[in-house]
Amino acid sequence: MSNSTKKARLRLRVTAAAETQLRAGHPWVYADSVREHNRSGVVGELAVVFDRKDEFLALGLYDPDSPIRVRILHVGKPQQINDGWWDERLRQALERRRGLFDEQTNGYRLINGESDGWPGLVLDRYDRTLVVKLYSAVWLPRLDELSRLIMAQLQPRHLILRLSRNIQEMARKNISAEDGQMLYGDPDTSGQTCPTFLETGLRFEADVRHGQKTGFFLDQRENRRAVESLSKGRRVLNAFSFSGGFSLYAARGGAAAVTDLDISAHALAAAKQNFELNKNIQAVVECRHELVQADAFEWLGAPGSRQFDLIVLDPPSFAKREAERAGAIRAYERLADLGISHLAHGGILVACSCSAHVTAEEFFAAVRQSAAKCGMKSREIQTTRHAPDHPATFKEAEYLKAIYLQFT
Q1: Please, which pLDDT band fits residue 177 given cuts at 50, 70 and 90?
Q2: pTM reported for the whole predicted model
């Protein structure tokens, strides 16, 4: 993609600490790390970072209004950023997924932001519908070029744009773009607000234009597969169930019954629809499927304890910022307490976190603390982290973790 400005190249110098972080592979330059620049920059233009010896250090996409002032594209020797460079960068991301999935899975992540060299951008596949989500305004001036690049290499039937809430107003004002907009595809023939895709042979709908993230939680695939392997003959509770992904895997795995618990009627309707899509699978047909609309904390804490043999706790992030970290850790421990209180003898707890501000060690410690004080013995089956199509190459990118405990 071409440079966004014809002015003299924007040149920055940063603190010694920032230089060290960049050489170590960190993909961000924070605003308070910038020591000087040769001129004011505009959002989305290429900025070159020079070191203390006035030698090329890195280049990235500049945002004058963000605490993350530069999102790094390249560190090392100078490179020319042109259409061929972007084309190769996309090919590299696609190559990393080669061999990860067979024909039974056509829903997965193609680009995972900074960890794939595309800072502030993700690209997800739902069969022949692709969804690009922008988390940073630096991509807005390049949206047309980005779309052409994606179309040329991947040739989807539809390309959908999703925008992080913090850049929606700017996108509307500057480039007349809306969250959920179809960048490519025939709206008259698509009906593709909710395309159907395959994951490990199961059919799901993804609300790509209005749903959370890009329409589905693709990052939990491996944990869903693990739950399937543990579900035979069990009564399963899926708390914060969203569209029933864990429940459908559990049903195919031979669960006697599954209960979807979510505060959103829309989410529960999606879960019901996903079960309908898989009525060709006998185990899904035979599994009793219950929908409960309620706040998970309130429902789990209410008098009258229902017992389950496997409970999945997969809440939304409890810590959106660092200041919420301590409260989030307490909330995870409280939720684990409630979940364990509903486990039958021999039951399994699967506790998940997607809070980047809570480390895996802190989260696992909170759940283990609940297990230690519950009065039952427990055995740790496993802990898991990021799926292979969701690599995390730096600390701030590490958000997903899960722990599996069996109680006797």
Answers
A1: very high
A2: 0.95
